[in-house]
Design a protein that fits this description.
There is one protein chain. It is built from 7 helices and 9 strands. It is of the alpha+beta class. Strands 1, 2, 3, 8 and 9 form a 5-stranded antiparallel β-sheet that branches. A 4-stranded antiparallel β-sheet has the order 5-6-4-7, with helices on both faces. A hairpin with a 3-residue loop joins strand 5 and strand 6. Helix 2 runs parallel beside helix 3 and helix 3 runs antiparallel to helix 5. About 2% of the residues have low confidence.
């Protein structure tokens, strides 16, 4: 497909700022409308990198936290200005922005980890209960009563019992074994294998099940009682309990993020990340830095100064 360039009118902008204020100034400028930075240096001595080793280290720390926890964080706030929650508008240096954000996110993590761990436990339990629902419905009124097989104990009369779950299309890994009793049940989405055998025979069967993309299924005797049909209400009740607890944890995590103003700090860091991607070097003196680039044709210096004033 042919790409056609369509030139648009633009105006040239020269932005002069105290060096540590330059990121905030450019972000405020770009938050209102697009800006395309360019730079023309008269000498190599004037060129300074904007991303220092200290800033790089702080950004790496943020990225590490982000990789592990961003799925639990709220979306960054979408605000033009950098006013702190409940405070006056204050311009902070990039190091201050990152330091404050990292401190807040570490504090959030300390409070959130127990909730996240419990959430993960509940979701794993929910997944098991979905399988048990399929098994119970498949068993129906069958005389095979899992609660009588001693599934909660490791061994009974030198025998061990287990229930395995495999993909419905899997070939069951059974061989002629006079020491083993086995039953197969096919559910709507899975195939189940119930086995009673000496420990060594069951260990070999377990390895064969894993090779067939299956695994052992945990049967909790506290809500498996009688036939599959009789056990189904207790399983559904436990699933509903997990669902309610998961919903409560989501609410707690949402309130925790609000209390720590996580979305606001994520917004500040996201704007800094954009700046460091857009600008790698600036023309800089001892105290002031200069940035040049293109902006929309309708903007003038009075409007831009008002914009920067509102941003602090």
């Amino acid at each position: 497909m042919m790409m056609v360039a369509r030139p648009q009118p633009a105006r040239w902008l020269q932005l002069l700022a105290v060096s540590e204020d330059l990121p905030a100034a450019l972000v405020a400028r770009a938050s209102h409308s697009p800006v395309e930075p360019e730079w023309h240096h008269t000498s190599a001595a004037e060129v300074q990198p904007v991303l220092t080793p200290e800033l790089s280290q702080q950004l790496r720390r943020f990225e590490e936290l982000s990789q592990n926890f961003r799925v639990w964080w709220p979306a960054p706030e979408k605000k033009h200005w950098d006013a702190a929650p409940g405070a006056v508008n204050v311009v902070a240096s990039p190091m201050e922005v990152l330091g404050q954000a990292l401190a807040v996110l570490e504090a959030w993590r300390g409070e959130a980890m127990p909730l996240i761990q419990r959430y993960q436990q509940l979701r794993a339990q929910e997944a098991e209960l979905v399988l048990l629902t399929d098994l119970a419905m498949a068993l129906g009124d069958s005389t095979l009563n899992l609660s009588q097989l001693g599934l909660d104990s490791s061994a009974t009369l030198c025998l061990t019992s287990a229930v395995f779950v495999l993909p419905v299309e899997a070939t069951l890994p059974l061989s002629e074994n006079e020491e083993m009793l086995s039953w197969t049940v096919t559910g709507s989405k899975h195939r189940f294998l119930v086995a009673v055998a000496p420990h060594q025979s069951l260990s070999s069967l377990s390895e064969a099940v894993v090779a067939a993309n299956g695994r052992a299924l945990s049967i909790n005797g506290s809500f498996w009682d009688g036939t599959g049909r009789q056990s189904l209400p207790k399983i559904e009740q436990q699933r509903a309990h997990c669902y309610r607890e998961v919903a409560g944890i989501k609410k707690e995590l949402r309130l925790l993020g609000q209390r720590h103003h996580v979305a606001w700090h994520l917004r500040r860091v996201a704007r800094l990340q954009w700046f460091f991607r857009a600008v790698t070097t600036v023309s800089a003196g001892e105290a002031l830095s200069r940035l040049e680039g293109w902006i929309g044709p309708e903007e003038d210096s009075i409007h831009i100064n008002q914009l920067l004033d509102r941003a602090g």
